[in-house]
Design a protein that fits this description.
This protein is of the alpha/beta class. It is 49% helix and 16% strand. The protein has 7 helices and 5 strands. A 5-stranded mixed β-sheet has the order 2-1-3-4-5. It binds zinc ion.
Length: 181
């Protein structure tokens, strides 16, 4: 239960301990997954946890303004955006909206390379979820001068994780420093 004092403190300012870029999927709310309360996480949610300029800007904003030094890109099993992209690549459709296409296009590189491997559907989806997280984390690490500077000079860490809908476990599999692994 949130105390009145805590709420009053937060009205005056925030100091979130992590920035989470996650999927909009109703089964993956970052605060619930990590058992956090008001003021604890700066959360950006978008279908497929893709990185477009507004996501990079949101991460830059929180890292600079609030001093947050941990960014978690969190994908999840059975991600609808991955499934939709896979479907689109296997059966291209003219009818998909331009807006939706902007998400599919950002997920596409994660799926495309795997299609040629001959993996079965479930394994393909599993690998694509992880590849999509790796790509998003890479885009955050290298797609912004501000973030690049914070990484090199001020200890900003960008890690990739996968939440398993089936077990509730979060596996941090990308960018975790050796000593902390
Ligand atoms: Zn998803």
């Amino acid at each position: 239960m949130l105390s009145f004092t805590r709420r009053a403190e937060l009205a005056a300012g925030q100091r979130p301990s992590a920035i989470v870029l996650g999927c909009s999927d109703s089964r993956v709310p970052a605060e619930i997954v990590f058992d956090q309360g008001l003021g604890d996480l700066f959360v950006i949610r978008v279908a497929g946890n893709v990185v477009a300029p507004s996501q990079v800007g949101s991460v830059e904003f929180a890292a600079e303004r609030y001093g947050t030094r941990l960014v978690v890109v969190m994908g999840h099993s059975q991600c609808g955006a991955i499934l939709a992209t896979l479907e689109e690549l296997q059966h291209p459709s003219e009818r998909r909206s331009r807006n939706l296409r902007s998400i599919v296009d950002r997920v596409r590189p994660a799926v495309e390379g795997l299609l040629a491997t001959g993996l079965a559907h479930d394994a393909l989806v599993r690998e694509a979820v992880r590849a999509n997280v790796r790509i998003a984390a890479h885009r955050l690490r290298h797609g912004s001068e501000i973030l690049e500077r914070l990484i090199h000079e001020d200890g900003l860490l960008v890690v990739g994780a996968e939440y398993a809908l089936e077990t509730g476990e979060v596996d941090f599999f990308d960018g975790v420093p050796e000593t902390a692994a």
